[in-house]
Amino acid sequence: MNKRYAEMLIFMVLFSSFSLLNDGNVGVKDVTAVPVVPYKVGNWTYIGKPIFPIKVAENQIRVGENWTYVCSLRAGVKYHVYFFGDWVDDTPLVDKTDYDIYVYNPFGKLESMHTESAGLPEHLGTTVYDPFFIPEYTGNYSFLIKNDGKESKGAKGGTFMVIEHLECNQWYEVHMQGKNALNEPTVDTYWAYEFTTTSGRVEVPVIVPDPPESYLDMYEVQLYLMANPLSGIGEMLNGMPLPWEPGLYGSATTAGSATYGGFRLTGEGFIHANASDSCENYGQDMLIEYSSGISASNTNMLLYHLALIAEEGEGTVRFMFKTDFEAPTLELQSVVNRVCSDEEVTITAVASDDGVGLESVTLYYTTDNWVTWNTVEMASAADNKFVAFIPSQLGGKTVKYKVVATDVAGNCAVKEASYVVKNRSSLYIALSNTVLTGGDGVKVNGWVSKGLANVTLDFVIQNIHVVKNVFADADGSFVYEFTPNAAGTWSVSASWPGTQEWWDAYSELLSFVVRKVPTSITCNINRVSAILGETIDISGYVAPAERNLMVTIRLTQPDGTVITRTAYTSSDGSYEVSGFQLNVKGQWQIMASLEGDAFHQSSSSSSVSLTVSDHWYNEYRLYIIAAGGVAGIAIVGVFFFTRSKEEAEEE
Fold first, then answer.
1. What pLDDT, on the 0 to 100 scale, is given for residue 34?
2. Nearest Cα to 78, choosing from 165, 140, 160?
3. What pLDDT, on a 0 to 100 scale, did the predictor assign at position 631?
4. Distance CA 478, CA 239 (A)
5. DSSP strand E in 582-642: where?
6. Rounded Cα–Cα distance for residues 158 and 246 (Å)
7. Buried/exposed code over 583-611 (b: 16+ C-beta within 10 A; e: otherwise)
8. What is the pLDDT of residue 649?
């Protein structure tokens, strides 16, 4: 059979004239006419789209007969196709029903055949290893169910189901359209999907387009927990759960903390109060936040169905089965807090997601406290880094920014920071001299970026700070003359605190040296010898001449005892100590010294000698006394001699 002939046959199947009888399931029609197809079809049913369970009644397909279900499928889409129910029976020594299934593509070519033993369900994946059927073409696929005339001993019923299987934590889109003017459903009024997870917590966000993009009012979105095979609800086939069969037709049951089943695609029937949502107007989004009560440590595979029902208008909705609630990890690198107005700022973030993966890393920034903002998608770099740039801003602005890392499931991590933008400022100083003599001053000449600024000068010597303020001219220039109060090595630096629009500024550190003044001193006395008890005058000069320098005069006595006297210089450098009484005879040594101060070196005079002698009387007093004694004796002797002579003559 050539391709053209096959296409013609399919066209005849789709568009031949036949009557449709509603069997009670919306979108499922029984066909009374016998279609012209390139295989023996027998009875057949056209399924409007892959969302409805098809009930195969007992004895509907008798031994040796067949029934074909035709469904329009899309290429590359993952479908879960299964046929199970009462006919599945592995009990020994029981007459079993043996259904074989043959799958034909839109061109009438046999794609696969499934002929398990009697009572065993057929695996309807694309291959024997796949749990799902993924069509190669878009069009009508035929599933021919044959009750094997050789092996089958019964014709028990079951459910044939084709439903699109979606993955968790991914966004999907579907076109929805409400009922027509006759209140009849259109092709896109109902849609249904399945997904599996081990999570007992599920969120289903449904994003409905806003007017005027689309005018769509959704009637309802319903989530149904359909199977938990390891807990006895539903079955497993080829590693995938099959639903609890009555639950496909609206029945519900409770096991443990969870309610199962209730699946429906009409406005009436079982409602999961905590697993549904609806719109009140055009464009209203919906959200299901469902927790089955199953433990978070659950490892059982759970099967869910989702039903979407439109009410009025049309549009494309976005939705997701969210089971990942962990936000990505996010850290900011090289956070800045000081930026100049001529600088572009690089924002670097490190982001990753161990779950479903990152969807985006976005930078938001504002200069008016989020009244308005800009958005930049950050570029991916090595080692999970993401980079974006904030352009230069005017001085005086505060830039607030945040990085938002979003994973595929819509979980977000946010890191915020800010920085201040100011004009770049500079501050320079220079010294008029770097070597000074004590008492001299030094001029500090400087310039700052901002005119009329108050600049602080910090002069330092040996950790002692001398702080001075100077006001800059309109052009930013300033001069300050400083006279150091001590000799040594000084440093000076300038600083300016800045303003709301200008950054603070600091000059380099400059040094200068203040040297002490060399001095000399003389010492003079008004005599070089003296009599004990006399006084002397001591005088001299200090050079260079300066008033009020303290001079210390050391007078060393003959026995080494030192006597000190203090004098202060006059403006001509002279000093004097008058009337110093000499109370010890012998050789005296006298010298003057200048101790020095903050600006003056110390110096000492030459030593001058002074001889102090005793008075001549005191010096010869013994001799005088001795001589006097001899003379007295002589006088007394003469007296007595004369007297004796006179007495003798009288006699």
1. 43
2. 165
3. 61
4. 85
5. 586-594, 603-604, 608-613
6. 11
7. eebeebebbbbbebbebbbebbbeebebe
8. 61
Continuous H helices in 490-620: 616-619
CA end-to-end distance (rounded Å), the chain = 215
3 state DSSP class of 155: coil
Which residue do the tokens 């003359």 mark?
A: 481
CA distance 650 to 599: 98
295, exposed or middle or buried, with CB in 10 Å at 0-12, 13-18, 19+? Answer: exposed
3-state secondary structure of 497: coil
Q: By three-state DSSP, how is residue 78 classified?
A: coil
* Cα separations in angstroms, 225 against 26, 55, 170, 229, 520: 22, 20, 19, 12, 109
Question: What region does 548 belong to: left with phi over 0, alpha with psi -120 to 50, or beta?
Answer: left
Contact call for residues 532 and 613 (beta carbons, < 8 A): yes
CA distances to 71, 80, 126, 170, 237 from 130, in Å: 20, 10, 6, 21, 11
User: What Å distances lie between residue 276 and 71, 206, 220, 343, 522, CA to CA?
Assistant: 28, 11, 7, 52, 112
Report residues of the chain scoring pLDDT below 70.
1-41, 267, 269, 296-297, 616-651
CA distance 92 to 103: 29
Give me the count of residues in the chain. Answer: 651
In single-letter form, the type of residue at position 118 comes to A
User: Residue 452: what pLDDT?
Assistant: 95
Residue-level pLDDT at 356? 86
Task: For 336-361, give one letter per residue: b (16+ CB within 10 A) or e.
Answer: beebbbeeebebbbbbbbebbebbeb
Alpha-carbon gap, residue 205 to 208, rounded angstroms: 10
Sign, CA torsion 171/172/173/178:
negative
Measured distance CA(262)–CA(181) in Å, rounded: 29
Paired strand residues for 390: 345
Nearest residue to 317 via CA among 173, 167, 192, 169: 173
In degrees and rounded to multiples of 5, residue 633 shows phi and psi of -60, -45
Q: What residue type is assigned to position 301 of the chain?
A: M
| Secondary structure tally for the chain: helices H, strands E | 3, 49
Burial of 557 (0-12, 13-18, 19+ CB in 10 A): middle
